[in-house]
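Translate structure to sequence.
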């Protein structure tokens, strides 16, 4: 009856009723509910609302005696949902790839789990201790931690793909045989005696140099 007594202490200073609900447990009997109304009338309350726990399918407040157990269950679920880090073993397979950006060479090493999935990367670029080297090392560390915490590689690739900044990358890759064959075929289709237009400013025929 603590709610009823609190409202009774404030009621003399108000001209209207008090919007306060008296929450009662699920095992409350009809006699206890009736006593709440009778005591509210005797203390001079103009209105009172009684709510018994569990009388509706959904409710914002629970007054059951098992609140301690429910709190422990929620804490256990939260602890179980905590992400776990999957570190690589001390000995692991790795692949190293060499790249070049505007004349600056670098190396990327990818360490893999036993199932072949990547678990860490190392980026070595420029001189040790330089600004670029520190940035690349920090970026590689963040990607490695994300991979070990279960972030899909596809999500990381989709996030960082098509990111452009100066200077543009110029990887050293060999031309595929298919591409060389297509270029040779397209050149062979032009007769030697005809003029092949190359630019608008240039006029006349000039022999193509062999590459």
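Result:
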């Amino acid at each position: 009856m603590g709610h009823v007594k609190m409202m009774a202490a404030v009621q003399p200073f108000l001209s209207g009723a008090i919007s306060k609900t008296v929450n009662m447990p699920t095992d409350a009997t009809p006699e206890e509910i009736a006593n709440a109304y009778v005591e509210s009338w005797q203390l001079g309350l103009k209105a009172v609302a009684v709510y018994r726990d569990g009388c509706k399918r959904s409710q914002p407040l629970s007054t059951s005696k098992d609140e301690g157990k429910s709190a422990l269950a929620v804490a256990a679920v939260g602890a179980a949902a905590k992400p776990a880090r999957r570190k690589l073993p001390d000995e692991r397979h790795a692949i190293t790839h060499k790249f070049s950006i505007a004349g600056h060479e670098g190396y990327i090493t990818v360490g893999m789990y036993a199932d072949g999935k990547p678990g860490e990367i190392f980026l070595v670029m420029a001189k040790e201790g330089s600004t670029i080297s520190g940035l690349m090392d920090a970026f590689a560390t963040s990607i490695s931690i994300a991979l070990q915490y279960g972030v899909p590689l596809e999500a990381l690739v989709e996030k960082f793909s098509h990111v452009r900044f100066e200077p543009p990358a110029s990887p050293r890759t060999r031309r595929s045989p298919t591409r060389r064959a297509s270029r040779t075929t397209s050149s062979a289709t032009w007769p030697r005696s005809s003029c092949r237009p190359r630019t608008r400013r240039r006029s006349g025929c000039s022999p193509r140099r062999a590459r």
